[in-house]
Amino acid sequence: MNLRPKVQKFAELMESRLREHDHKGGWEEDDARTLTRRLVANADTLPAGGVEAAVDTANYAMMLADKAGAL
To answer: Is 60 in contact with 42 (CB distance < 8 Å)?
Structure first.
């Protein structure tokens, strides 16, 4: 599948942000409730939080999708 250029760029931003936080470990040990709280906390900062908040919010959504078995 060829990703749309903007989707590809956003995915790269997501990966970059995840790598910045690799020292914290993965999300495998976090439960869905914790991840949801973090997603909401980041989403609440939008749009003032800018791209970083949008990327963090998307990453938490991806982590929840992973927990649900979608990935």
So the answer is: yes
